[in-house]
């Protein structure tokens, strides 16, 4: 490809090659993501927040094609608003996840995005749902994105049932830090969202504040 | 000529699909240096497509008395290279009249893997002990690069344990800690990678010699995820 079409990354699809994670604890959930958006080899946004609110106490984590993921999140945000007015109370996390799943499944040939839906509701407390490729499954924790492959071993080894909120936050931060250091498509800063009955707290951890692990 | 016919099953129904697939050691291998030697480990699964051709493979191949290699990639390629290097190293050691260096073995692997890089699919870890530099691990991935590393993982299952390795390996670990780390890391990878599985084979190489161990499936560490 010669240079008269401009640099290669102008014609590459914009992807959130990424690392996302969500974990539930007794009373809420913690979501985490990196902040890198790449188009081919170029980083087009190094501070993108991939944790998108679907409702007050329900968030989703975006991965895959940036456009597809954002659009799904916006559509479901709208659908959830309508739904919560209809039922007259806050929606359930499972409802939000089902709405995401319905879009992902119906348009699975056209879309390439994976959203992890997590939040808190009064009925079931903290819940995490994976909606990869149009399935819907509730899990104690879920990881996704290109960086997740490098940390499957780490999360399998480190996860224990019954971790506290602070332990979950540390678990998320450690996982993101490890994935970001190995995956070329993940990087930047870490965004953390903690949702429980009383509050929804968003936090940013800058690169030099992330935990460092001894390098080889 | 394009094939317009839609097929419900494989072209040749007389022979299963896996019979025409290449035999690969899609695998997880690992090698760690400690003060006084090295610990190496591998899973034991060899696949042809979806069929497990050998579920108790020994991917830790002896090249010389205190030098081993861990093989990943095409089973045929890695066996052939290992045979060639074993011969070359044996000859060299007789000429030298002393045990060969691990670095020499690693360079022999690199020479073959680099020269025939277009034809080969081989990712090899060379590890052993010699009098000059003690325990050493050399990584010769696909393409034929050579680099020494204190700890190295390879094979299809290795991607899943980079995070675990980065967080759990610390320089200056004892031999037993290294064995534990290797067994744990291999179990984690075997659990996630469809091409890795079976038993865990471990070996430790030091001045005293080589100690080999097998950890069976039901003795492997378990992890509670779901």
TrEMBL record, chain A:
<dbReference type="InterPro" id="IPR001353">
    <property type="entry name" value="Proteasome_sua/b"/>
</dbReference>
<comment type="subunit">
    <text>Component of the proteasome complex.</text>
</comment>
<keyword id="KW-0888">Threonine protease</keyword>
<dbReference type="GO" id="GO:0005839">
    <property type="term" value="C:proteasome core complex"/>
</dbReference>
<dbReference type="InterPro" id="IPR023333">
    <property type="entry name" value="Proteasome_suB-type"/>
</dbReference>
<dbReference type="GO" id="GO:0005634">
    <property type="term" value="C:nucleus"/>
</dbReference>
<keyword id="KW-0391">Immunity</keyword>
<dbReference type="Pfam" id="PF00227">
    <property type="entry name" value="Proteasome"/>
</dbReference>
<keyword id="KW-0378">Hydrolase</keyword>
<comment type="function">
    <text>The proteasome is a multicatalytic proteinase complex which is characterized by its ability to cleave peptides with Arg, Phe, Tyr, Leu, and Glu adjacent to the leaving group at neutral or slightly basic pH. The proteasome has an ATP-dependent proteolytic activity. This subunit is involved in antigen processing to generate class I binding peptides.</text>
</comment>
<dbReference type="GO" id="GO:0004298">
    <property type="term" value="F:threonine-type endopeptidase activity"/>
</dbReference>
<comment type="function">
    <text>Component of the proteasome, a multicatalytic proteinase complex which is characterized by its ability to cleave peptides with Arg, Phe, Tyr, Leu, and Glu adjacent to the leaving group at neutral or slightly basic pH. The proteasome has an ATP-dependent proteolytic activity.</text>
</comment>
<dbReference type="GO" id="GO:0005737">
    <property type="term" value="C:cytoplasm"/>
</dbReference>
<comment type="similarity">
    <text>Belongs to the peptidase T1B family.</text>
</comment>
<dbReference type="GO" id="GO:0002376">
    <property type="term" value="P:immune system process"/>
</dbReference>
<dbReference type="GO" id="GO:0051603">
    <property type="term" value="P:proteolysis involved in protein catabolic process"/>
</dbReference>
<keyword id="KW-0647">Proteasome</keyword>
<comment type="subunit">
    <text>The 26S proteasome consists of a 20S proteasome core and two 19S regulatory subunits. The 20S proteasome core is composed of 28 subunits that are arranged in four stacked rings, resulting in a barrel-shaped structure. The two end rings are each formed by seven alpha subunits, and the two central rings are each formed by seven beta subunits. The catalytic chamber with the active sites is on the inside of the barrel. Component of the immunoproteasome, where it displaces the equivalent housekeeping subunit PSMB6.</text>
</comment>
<protein>
    <recommendedName>
        <fullName>Proteasome subunit beta</fullName>
    </recommendedName>
</protein>
<keyword id="KW-0539">Nucleus</keyword>
<keyword id="KW-0865">Zymogen</keyword>
<dbReference type="InterPro" id="IPR016050">
    <property type="entry name" value="Proteasome_bsu_CS"/>
</dbReference>
TrEMBL record, chain B:
<dbReference type="GO" id="GO:0004298">
    <property type="term" value="F:threonine-type endopeptidase activity"/>
</dbReference>
<keyword id="KW-0539">Nucleus</keyword>
<comment type="subunit">
    <text>Component of the proteasome complex.</text>
</comment>
<comment type="function">
    <text>Component of the proteasome, a multicatalytic proteinase complex which is characterized by its ability to cleave peptides with Arg, Phe, Tyr, Leu, and Glu adjacent to the leaving group at neutral or slightly basic pH. The proteasome has an ATP-dependent proteolytic activity.</text>
</comment>
<keyword id="KW-0647">Proteasome</keyword>
<keyword id="KW-0865">Zymogen</keyword>
<dbReference type="GO" id="GO:0051603">
    <property type="term" value="P:proteolysis involved in protein catabolic process"/>
</dbReference>
<dbReference type="InterPro" id="IPR001353">
    <property type="entry name" value="Proteasome_sua/b"/>
</dbReference>
<dbReference type="InterPro" id="IPR016050">
    <property type="entry name" value="Proteasome_bsu_CS"/>
</dbReference>
<comment type="subunit">
    <text>The 26S proteasome consists of a 20S proteasome core and two 19S regulatory subunits. The 20S proteasome core is composed of 28 subunits that are arranged in four stacked rings, resulting in a barrel-shaped structure. The two end rings are each formed by seven alpha subunits, and the two central rings are each formed by seven beta subunits. The catalytic chamber with the active sites is on the inside of the barrel. Component of the immunoproteasome, where it displaces the equivalent housekeeping subunit PSMB6.</text>
</comment>
<keyword id="KW-0645">Protease</keyword>
<dbReference type="GO" id="GO:0005634">
    <property type="term" value="C:nucleus"/>
</dbReference>
<comment type="similarity">
    <text>Belongs to the peptidase T1B family.</text>
</comment>
<comment type="function">
    <text>The proteasome is a multicatalytic proteinase complex which is characterized by its ability to cleave peptides with Arg, Phe, Tyr, Leu, and Glu adjacent to the leaving group at neutral or slightly basic pH. The proteasome has an ATP-dependent proteolytic activity. This subunit is involved in antigen processing to generate class I binding peptides.</text>
</comment>
<dbReference type="GO" id="GO:0002376">
    <property type="term" value="P:immune system process"/>
</dbReference>
<keyword id="KW-0963">Cytoplasm</keyword>
<keyword id="KW-0888">Threonine protease</keyword>
<dbReference type="InterPro" id="IPR023333">
    <property type="entry name" value="Proteasome_suB-type"/>
</dbReference>
<keyword id="KW-0391">Immunity</keyword>
<dbReference type="Pfam" id="PF00227">
    <property type="entry name" value="Proteasome"/>
</dbReference>
<protein>
    <recommendedName>
        <fullName>Proteasome subunit beta</fullName>
    </recommendedName>
</protein>
<dbReference type="GO" id="GO:0005737">
    <property type="term" value="C:cytoplasm"/>
</dbReference>
């Amino acid at each position: 490809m010669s240079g008269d079409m401009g640099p290669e990354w102008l014609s590459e699809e914009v992807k959130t090659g990424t690392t996302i994670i969500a974990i539930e604890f007794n009373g809420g959930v913690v979501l985490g993501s990196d902040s890198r958006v790449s188009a081919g080899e170029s980083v087009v946004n190094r501070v993108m927040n991939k944790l998108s609110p679907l409702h007050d106490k329900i968030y989703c984590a975006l991965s895959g094609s940036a456009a597809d993921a954002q659009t799904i999140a916006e559509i479901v945000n709208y659908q959830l608003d309508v739904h919560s007015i209809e039922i007259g109370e806050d929606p359930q996390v499972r409802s939000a996840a089902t709405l995401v799943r319905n879009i992902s499944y119906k348009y699975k040939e056209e879309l390439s995005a994976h959203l992890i839906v997590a939040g808190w509701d009064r009925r079931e407390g903290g819940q995490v749902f994976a909606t990869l490729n149009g399935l819907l499954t509730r899990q104690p924790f879920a990881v996704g994105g290109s960086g997740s492959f490098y940390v499957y071993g780490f999360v399998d080894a480190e996860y224990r049932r019954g971790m506290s909120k602070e332990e979950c936050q540390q678990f998320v931060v450690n996982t993101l830090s490890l994935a970001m250091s190995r995956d070329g498509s993940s990087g930047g800063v870490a965004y953390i969202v903690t949702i429980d009955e009383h509050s929804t707290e968003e936090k940013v951890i800058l690169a030099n504040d992330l935990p460092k692990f001894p390098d080889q | 000529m394009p094939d317009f016919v839609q097929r419900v099953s494989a072209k040749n129904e007389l022979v299963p699909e896996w019979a025409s697939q290449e035999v690969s050691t899609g695998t997880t291998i690992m090698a760690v240096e400690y003060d006084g030697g090295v610990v190496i480990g591998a899973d034991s699964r060899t696949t042809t497509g979806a069929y497990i051709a050998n579920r108790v493979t020994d991917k830790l191949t002896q090249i010389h008395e205190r030098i081993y290699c861990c093989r990943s990639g095409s089973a045929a390629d890695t066996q052939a290279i290992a045979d060639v290097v074993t011969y070359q190293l044996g000859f060299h050691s007789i000429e030298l009249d002393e045990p060969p260096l691990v670095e020499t073995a690693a360079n022999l692997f690199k020479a073959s893997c680099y020269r025939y890089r277009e034809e080969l699919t081989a990712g090899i870890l060379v590890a052993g002990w010699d009098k000059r530099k003690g325990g050493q691990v050399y990584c010769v991935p696909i393409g034929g690069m050579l680099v020494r590393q204190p700890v190295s993982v390879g094979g299809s299952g290795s991607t899943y344990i980079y995070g675990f390795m980065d967080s759990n390996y610390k320089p200056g670990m004892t031999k037993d800690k290294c064995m534990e780390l290797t067994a744990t890391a291999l179990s984690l990878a075997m659990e996630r990678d469809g091409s890795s599985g079976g038993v865990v084979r471990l070996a430790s190489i030091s001045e005293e010699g080589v100690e080999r161990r097998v950890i069976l499936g039901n003795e492997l560490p378990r992890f509670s995820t779901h």
